[in-house]
Amino acid sequence: MNTILKILMGLLSTVVTLGLLSVVGIVGFHYIRLVENEPLSHPVRVTAWSAQQLDLEDGRVISFAEPDNYWQEPEIREPYCMVEVKPLAGDVVGIYIKRRTFICGTGAPWLTIPLVAVEIPKYQRKELALMGQLFAR
Question: What angle (nearest 5°) sits at the alpha carbon of residue 126, between those of residues 48 and 136?
């Protein structure tokens, strides 16, 4: 009976200690799990791009009146880049790309005991440009 009481007191003190360390932010019980997703509604593959235009696999061409730094985005330069083209008004379109979610670890506790999963989408939809004229070949 005495041994069981000591074991229970040891477990209780461990739980209380972990609870206090969790409140302070030293120990955490949540961990991040990235979930596969497709944030683009109707993705289309980019076949060629330049400072003036964007060629899509379905034959559409988006030309830009003023070249900008859209092509500095690393996602647009990938071999099989997918974009979503959303008509806005007239010939003007919005262009969206799929970007991987950035997770910063600086706010995480020093020690994580993975008990509770926090599901985060692996990719997000990012606006690349809100202009351009759409032409069909």
Answer: 40
